[in-house]
Amino acid sequence: MAKNWYPIIDYEKCTGCLTCYNFCPHEVYSVGVNGKPMVVNPDNCVELCRGCQRICPAGAIRYYGEQ
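== Ferredoxin ==
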C-alpha cells in the first residue's frame, strides 16, 4: 500500500455517482454526509493504481504523488 499516493477528489466535478467508492476494494473511500465519496484511508491506496480515476465518469479524480 502507498504512503505517498492517494486519490484527490475535485468536488466541483464530482457528481456523487459513487463509482469510485463501489469500485475500490481497499476501502480508500467512504460516503460523506453530502452523499459524495471522500478519501478516508489514503494509506490503503495501491501505489500507481489508477482504477478509480479511469472509471470516474466526471473525471474528478487525480492523485497526490502524481508527477
